[in-house]
Specification:
Blueprint: H1 20-40, E1 50-52, H2 55-74, E2 80-81, E3 90-91, H3 99-102, H4 106-112, H5 114-141, H6 145-157, H7 159-165, H8 169-172, H9 177-184, H10 196-215, H11 217-237, H12 239-273, H13 308-313, H14 325-338, H15 343-358, E4 363-366, E5 369-374, H16 398-415, H17 427-439, E6 449-451, H18 457-460, E7 473-476, H19 487-494, E8 507-511, E9 514-519, H20 525-536, H21 544-557, E10 559-564, H22 570-581, E11 585-587, E12 590-594, H23 596-599
Parallel strand pairs: 7-10
Antiparallel strand pairs: 1-6, 2-3, 4-5, 8-9, 10-12, 11-12
Helix pairs in contact: 1-5, 1-6, 2-4, 2-5, 2-19, 4-5, 5-6, 5-9, 6-16, 9-10, 10-11, 10-12, 11-12, 11-15, 14-16, 14-17, 15-16, 16-17
Length: about 600
């Protein structure tokens, strides 16, 4: 996951105030980023029953966007929802609720539905991140628009960003990162404006930190680590500048911490101590690491990519966070050697190298084979917060590091007249060719999609409403799916959270007296039984005890109706539910069992 960092040099380029023509060119650059993001999401526009490659995660975030809109319209607590996991509900502050995206996108969600809102969010994440880095580069670090445009393109559309965008909105949404860094690493204020250079930026920084928490805390953690590593490297490279900048920097951070602390006190309390909070992680985060060979390989969703090699070198399709290809890495080494005298370049190089090494996990792997060599991550794996981090996401810090390095090199070649030609050799043309060749393996292709079963018409059209009184639930089959795709969560998202249901795809406690994290709701006998039938297609021989357990479970869930939508093993599941509850009746898109009399 997640972010990189940069800082003004000791002599930053003067702030460019664009003319009308300059603003138009800036808008054209942003428009190009938007157009590319729309193309990359094109396989889903107008196709409601397609989801991006990690379908379960898209269902999760569609539901979160729908919940945010629902909370805005109905004035409900945005940090908690009783719409899933009935009767206990879900602590959304302890999950990736992306309220910082969902609340602004409320009009889109209400007008066009959760799928369109998700696609719009992906476009905003990719294009917004690229545009934000473009703005920071243009204002602070480079003098040529082409250099800033190339740097922004790398930062927003690198393979890791594309892989994350198809599944993890909270990781792909990095458009606040450049703004936060611009406020943290401001040029030293003049003596007469010293207080203004601390208080105003500090307050704005605090507000941006709060917004980032409500988009994704994980990005903020990686940002803090990367910014700290960069600041240390910069201080070692230029001690004089570090001493001059440090007082104002720490002042801004203190003000920002105060603002953010006040605004986040209750949400963070709710996350760690509120209803349905949990401890630990629901999966072994340290198992998600990158193969050392992945840094020179091509990702799946690039022009040279395939399925076999990335599958060998990364934990899954959403974590292809390195995959820079050999050309870009060689180019980066050349840039670092060439511009080594700049403290900014040395600090960037050190930061990128550290996070690349951390992404290799606790044991180094090469070409899919464990080497037995301890990885650098082992040194920090037991530290608070880092013990919950996904090592593979450390490589995302390298994305903006490489983007800034390439931008600095392009700017150096384009802005310096003496480099236009050396000994008759067209240096600008050669360097442009080298950059183009290095970036060619990173050219993305549209994010892949997979089919998803449609929402039954009985659910989508509200046929359940006369059968479900207030306080009762709609139980989808299977009721609890653990970490798999959750049909009821998709139904809920696509209907605007119109009904309450058990189950769902989220992280919660293992039980009322066990706060250990787990995926989804705690299992009950009937949910385990029906999930096994859905997975295997084998119809079990049921007993009266199974039928009594089914009624008890339905009472626990406060069920009014049980609904079976399209499933791969739908017929065996229907026969099993018939045996448990009695014959169901066909409805548009599936089957329904009215259990109000049985549940009481």
């Amino acid at each position: 996951m997640t972010t990189g960092t940069t800082s003004p040099t000791t002599s930053p380029p003067p702030t460019v105030r664009p003319s009308g023509a300059g603003r138009l060119r800036d808008l054209l650059v942003v428009a190009a980023y938007l157009a590319l993001a729309v193309v990359l999401t094109s396989a889903q526009w107008g196709h409601p029953w397609r989801l991006f490659h990690q379908a379960g995660d898209q269902i999760l975030f569609e539901w979160m966007l729908a919940h945010a809109a629902h909370a805005v319209v109905d004035g409900e607590n945005p940090l908690f929802s009783a719409g899933l996991n009935a009767p206990d509900g879900v602590n959304l502050m302890a999950n990736t609720s992306v309220l910082g995206l969902g609340v602004p996108l409320t009009p889109v969600t209400l007008l066009f539905g959760s799928q369109v809102a998700f696609c719009v969010a992906v476009v905003c994440c990719l294009a917004g991140t690229a545009a934000a880095w473009y703005a920071l580069l243009r204002r602070r670090l480079v003098t040529t628009r082409s250099a800033a445009a190339v740097g922004g393109l790398i930062c927003g559309f690198a393979p890791g960003m594309i892989a994350q965008a198809g599944a993890h909105l909270h990781i792909a949404a990095q458009f606040l990162v450049p703004a936060i860094l611009a406020l943290v690493f401001r040029p030293a204020p003049e003596a007469a404006h010293r207080l203004a250079g601390v208080w105003r930026p500090g307050v704005v920084l605090g507000l941006l930190l709060v917004w980032q928490v409500f988009i994704g805390e994980e990005v903020l953690v990686f940002l803090a680590l990367a910014a700290g590593m960069f600041a240390l490297g910069y201080a070692l490279a230029d001690r004089v500048a570090a001493r001059r900048l440090a007082p104002a920097l720490f002042g801004r951070l203190a003000v920002a911490a105060g603002v953010a602390g006040v605004l986040l006190a209750y949400p963070l309390w709710f996350q760690f101590y509120g209803p349905q909070h949990y401890s630990g992680m629901a999966f072994a985060a340290q198992a998600f690491q990158l193969d050392a060979a992945s840094f020179t390989a091509s990702a799946r969703q690039t022009v040279f990519g395939d399925d076999w090699l990335p599958g060998l070198l990364s934990p899954n399709p959403t974590e292809e966070n390195s995959f820079f290809g050999p050309g870009l890495l060689v180019l980066a080494v050349v840039i670092v050697v060439w511009l080594w005298r700049r403290p900014l370049v040395r600090a960037l190089a050190g930061c990128g190298l550290v996070f690349a090494l951390l992404s290799l996990g606790t044991e180094l792997r090469f070409d899919g084979t464990a080497t037995g060599i301890p990885g650098p991550y082992r040194l920090v794996a037991g530290l608070p917060l880092l013990d919950l981090a996904v090592p593979a996401r450390f490589a995302l810090v390298c994305v903006p590091v490489l983007g800034v390095l390439v931008a600095l090199s392009v700017d150096r070649v384009w802005a310096a007249r003496e480099l236009s030609a050396v000994a008759g050799v067209p240096v600008r043309l050669l360097w442009a060719g080298a950059v183009a060749a290095a970036l060619l393996p990173l050219v993305p292709t549209p994010i892949r999609v997979v089919p998803v079963m449609p929402v039954p018409g009985f659910v989508a059209d509200g046929g359940w409403r006369p059968l479900v009184p207030p306080g009762r639930t709609v139980v989808a089959v299977p009721p609890v799916t653990g970490a798999a795709r959750s049909p009821v969560m998709l139904w809920s998202a696509r209907t605007g959270l119109a009904f309450t249901a058990p189950g769902g795809y989220f992280i919660g406690p293992s039980g009322p007296d066990d706060p250990a994290a787990r995926w989804g709701a705690p299992d009950r006998p009937t949910s385990v039984l029906l999930r096994r039938v859905a997975e295997t297609g084998a119809v079990p021989v049921l007993t009266d005890a199974d039928r009594r357990s089914a009624v008890e479970d339905l009472r626990h869930w406060r069920a009014a109706v049980v609904v079976l939508g399209p499933l791969t093993n739908g017929d065996p599941v229907r026969r099993t539910v018939d045996d448990l509850l009695g014959p169901g009746r066909p409805v548009d898109g599936g089957w329904v069992w009215d259990v109000r009399d049985q549940v009481g």
